[in-house]
Amino acid sequence: MLSNAIYIFIAYLVDRIVGDPRILLHPVVIIGKGISLLESLIRKIVKQEKFLKFAGLLFPLIIVGGTYVIVEFILYVVSFIHPLAATALEIWLISTTIATKGLGDAGMEVYRFLKNKDIDNARKSLAMIVGRDTEQLDESEISRGTVETVAENIVDAIISPLFFALIGGAPLAMAYRATNTLDSMVGYKNEKYQNLGWASARLDDVLNYIPARFTAILLLGACWLEKLAVRNAWRMIKRDARLHPSPNSGITEAGVAGALGVQLGGTNFYQGIASNRAKMGEPTRLLEANDIIKTVKIMKLTSMLCTVFFIILSLIFHIYIGLG
Q1: What is the mean pLDDT for each group of 10 consecutive residues in the chain (324 residues)?
Q2: What is the DSSP letter of 243?
Q3: Rounded-to-integer distance, Cα 179 and Cα 292, Å
Q4: Helix (H) or strand (E) holding 181
Q5: pLDDT at 2 (0 to 100)
Q6: Helix 100-115 vs helix 2-17: crossing angle, to nearest 10
Q7: What does the alpha-carbon distance between residue 61 and residue 72 come to, in Å, rounded to a whole number?
Q8: Which of 38, 183, 267, 317 supports an S-S bond with 187, CB 3.0-4.6 Å?
């Protein structure tokens, strides 16, 4: 456990400094190609919609299970070349499962366009990280979309991968990332994926359940350090988190809404079709570009608190085992 904590601390630093260099093939891209290939094969073989629900179980079994086995096998083989090579590879693999730098950079890019009054590019930049239509959004709505995205991804893009890396190293962290990628690709509750993607969506909810609630504690600590409205953040988590369609994502969105004193959620448009999301927080004021900076700071501080906590927890556990 101590070695895993050290690995994730170094991997966290790698992500904060380097991020995901485009010159390297990201493991999630490979996972995504595997998902697309499996979906294509399933749809060719399974013609009746009623059988797709059973076929949907193949995604967690093959993609998630296969990812774990492949990563474990690669690390095992590399360890024969040199133990340090295996260690370096494990650290790099863990770093690819978290996205602190990428998430922060994406949010700050939107912020910079807004501060320069470049609404068109701010809309385009937001469109790169959300699925909603952005062509008609004003500054407040662009800010809302960015804040929601950064807040929601604190769990599945940072804390959950670190949590599973602590428990099972790179293989388990990568298996979690495979689950999350499945959810983003086939876990929709629409006509196309309601049967095929149900198992992937349910597994993602289950795996994020504990990390999301742990994140709530970290987020409140981050808000306290940033001198934001901690009590209101906690009140909104208790009151509004359950309104979110996800049992997990609403926790961080509601917490950020309360901390900033704004309201998130509302009406979004997807390919021209309106979709009403539950509102979280209270509309004491309109969102503005500076709220993006505050949310990015909350995200980064929450992630830092997580890595420090895991190091301390691992040290205590290591000492306890040693004394025993």
Answers
A1: 85 92 83 94 85 91 97 96 95 96 96 96 95 93 97 96 96 97 87 87 96 97 97 97 91 97 93 88 94 98 96 84 65
A2: G
A3: 28
A4: helix 160-186
A5: 65
A6: 30
A7: 16
A8: 183
CA distances from 182 to 25, 169, 275 (A): 18, 20, 23
Looking at residue 271, what is its pLDDT?
84
The span from the CA of 156 to the CA of 208, in Å, is: 7
Q: Which of 153, 285, 316, 169 is nearest to 219 (CA)?
A: 153
Looking at the chain, how many residues does it have? 324
Picking from 160, 126, 135, 127, the residue whose alpha carbon sits closest to that of residue 292 is 126
Residues 281 and 1: their CA atoms lie apart, in Å, by 38
Beta partners for 263?
281
The H-or-E segment that residue 191 falls in is none
Residue for token pair 């704004």? 262
Residue 225 corresponds to which amino acid? L
Residue 170 CB neighbours (<10 A):
30
Give all strands (DSSP E) within the chain, no chain letters. Answer: 263-270, 273-281
Beta-carbon contacts of residue 217 (< 8 Å; ≥ 6 apart): none
Cα(259)–Cα(232) distance, integer angstroms: 6
pLDDT at 1: 65
- Residue 274 pairs in a beta bridge with 269
Q: Token pair for residue 260?
A: 């900033």
Would you say 234 and 213 are in contact if contact means Cβ atoms under 8 Å apart? no
Q: What pLDDT is recorded for position 124?
A: 96
Question: 270 has which bridge partners?
Answer: 273
268/85 Cα distance (integer angstroms): 47
C-alpha 310, offset from chain centre: 18
Longest dimension (CA), the chain: 63
Q: For 226, which DSSP code? A: T
